Amino acid sequence: MSSTTNTPTHHTSTIGSIGAPSRRNTELALLVFAVVIPVFAYANVGLALNEQVPSGLLSYGLGLGLLAGVAHLVVRKFAPYADPLLLPLATLLNGLGLVAIWRLDQSKLLQRIHQAGTAAPRQLLYTALGIALFIVVLIFLKDHRVLQRYTYISMVGALFLLLLPLVPGLGQNIYGAKIWISVAGFSIQPGEFAKIVLAIFFAGYLMVKRDALALASRRVLGVYLPRGRDLGPIIVVWAISILILVFETDLGTSLLFFGMFVIMLYVATERTSWIFFGLLMSSVGAVGVASIEPHVKMRVQAWLDPMHEYALSQQGVPGHSEQAMQALWAFGSGGTLGTGWGQGHSELIKFAANSDFILATFGEELGLAGLMALLLIYGLIVERGVRTALAARDPFGKLLAIGLSGAFALQVFVVAGGVMGLIPLTGMTMPFLAYGGSSVIANWALIGILLRISDTARRPAPAPATNPDAEMTQVVRPS
Amino acid sequence: MSELTLTVMRLGFLAVLWLFVIVAVQVIRSDLFGTRVTQRSARRDAARPQQDRRQAPPQQRQQPAAGGGRARRNAPTKLVVTEGTLTGTTVALQSQTITLGRAHDSTIVLDDDYASSRHARIYPDRDGQWIVEDLGSTNGTYLDRTRLTTPTPIPLGAPIRIGKTVIELRK
User: Fold this and answer.
1) How many structural domains comprise chain A?
2) The domain spanning residue B117 has which CATH number?
3) How many whole angstroms separate alpha carbon A113 and alpha carbon A391?
4) Please, are residues B124 and B117 in contact by the beta-carbon 8 Å criterion?
């Protein structure tokens, strides 16, 4: 590993590899910080709403701390060289999400509208399940390259998961989007898990095909046109994502899958033309579907003119939603520094206040300053993912890490952009913050896989085996 | 709860949140890894013993790594003449070659009938290990009791005999 400069007379400097330190103690310190911040927020909400420190403070703090501690110990044991930041960042987001959900649980208005008030304990349960899956991933996935063997099984699995909500009797249509299935009383969003499985398929597929995709192309008008047979898979994925959009009316998921594929394709082939094609195809698809599908069309209208939409819904015209405008008002009333925990009125958003629109609560109560910090934390998670991809030595790990962090970034963009009115609103959940079991569990698994890849990437290379020639030369020594 | 307390908590929370972000960024800053350029020091890498052993004569190799390990931790800093006319002379070991012999341009000019003009040289190899090499002398160079035939690493404190002169490397 280490090489030495060899100047003729002196040898003064060495160029050697720095063995990346394991950084587990850094992780522990940050993790303590990441547990203390949500506990502070929790106490703050209680003081603001009820003028007393909430009774559940100790159990909540201990619960979050225990989960984080167990996760940390497992990382220490099974992935000692993994990235020190991913776990604390995810823990902080998850903890803040729990606080915001608990804060919305306290709202009398939301308690009347639907059986809220129980969301926070359930989210804590989902968090525990998520961390359990995280631990399972770290213990049983000793080497991420094992996943490469399941490339095509992953494809079938991902398609199966995506099609599940369309199965009659199993799928549920909630608020106009058919992305849930109901199993034993639990609503599961298979799309969240399909995200990870699909990333495994793309990584395995592109690792094999990337040379053909990168090199066998014709140059027409400055862009590289790939061959038809290489273009095939991107067309298929595009068609699938459009079909999801049409049948499940889920703009976010289809954008996520197609975007993830284009990102991975670009990284695998280094051809800008794929981004060009990707943007072209996704805009054609989105415009096409938006002009046909009424649900999507409504979302686009609500995006273009939220005030008109709000007025229509106040007049009682069915099929219109006041939420988009309310979210914008929430951001506006938060201002720069926010109203403070528990002092906003984001419960007025009513349903989905603690899931799709949870960002509006943060925007109102923490203001621009808090929201920017949250987005930076998301950015840091993505940065660590990309850094892992850069450090990974095997192409499969590189592609998988970039795919997973790209999907994470896209999801944050799609949700935050939707709530803030930058793009049409879609029914996706903010990773870790929003209420929703599938999302929390799937994202913890995603972090687990990223930690596994980063552990492999940052692990110091084993000492090179003794060169057999070195022993041989001893034997033929003249005596 | 007073308005003031809540305001302090509100701003305090934002401050703590940003502090976390800043600390996380600091961790990234200190987390750079890859290659670095270091000034050579006495400390050596763990990869060293294999290369040392390659050049060591058989009796050296039979000694366990403990001897070599001590030498690596305690790199010699000076060469001391312990017997002969120059007894007591020390030469600081920098990274240049030390030549021994009767020739006037040697680093240590041996006034010794049994030494050749250019008798031996002592030099650090690429890894900083000090090596003694006999330069085809008539009466030979001895490390401990063994006559040298190949360039050989010098253990700390091992006597190197040239004629009536004995030198050794010390800390």
Assistant:
1) 1
2) 2.60.200.20
3) 49
4) no
In a domain, B91, yes or no: yes
Q: How many residues appear in chain B?
A: 171
| Mean pLDDT calculated for residue range A192-197 | 89
**Residue span of the structural domain in which B87 resides:** 75-170
The confidence score (pLDDT) of residue B68 equals 40
Interface contact A473-B20, CB threshold 8 A:
no
**Which of A73-87, B30-44, B76-90 is least confident?**
B30-44
Confidence of residue A7 (pLDDT cuts 50, 70, 90): very low
Question: Cβ–Cβ of B50/A341 closer than 8 Å?
Answer: no
CB contact under 8 A, B9 and A10: no
CB-based contact A377 B95, cutoff 8 Å: no
Amino acid found at B171: K
Which of residues A243 and A93 earns the better pLDDT score?
A: A93
Question: Residue A63 is part of which domain span?
Answer: 23-458
Mean pLDDT of chain B: 76
Closest Cα of chain A to B165: distance in Å? 25
Q: What pLDDT sits at residue B32?
A: 65
Total domains present in chain B? 1
Q: Phi/psi of residue B3, each to 5°?
A: -60, -40
- ipTM of this predicted structure: 0.84
Distance CA A387, CA B34 (A): 12
Give B96's contacts in chain A (Cβ within 8 Å).
9-10
Q: Beta-carbon neighbour count of residue B11 at 10 Å?
A: 14
Tokens of B127: 């890894």
How far is it, in rounded angstroms, from Cα A162 to Cα A258?
Answer: 13
Question: Confidence class of residue A245 from pLDDT cuts 50, 70 and 90?
Answer: low
Q: Position of tokens 């100790």?
A: A58
d(CA A399, CA A300): 33
The alpha carbon torsion through B23, B24, B29, B35 (nearest 10 deg) reads 140
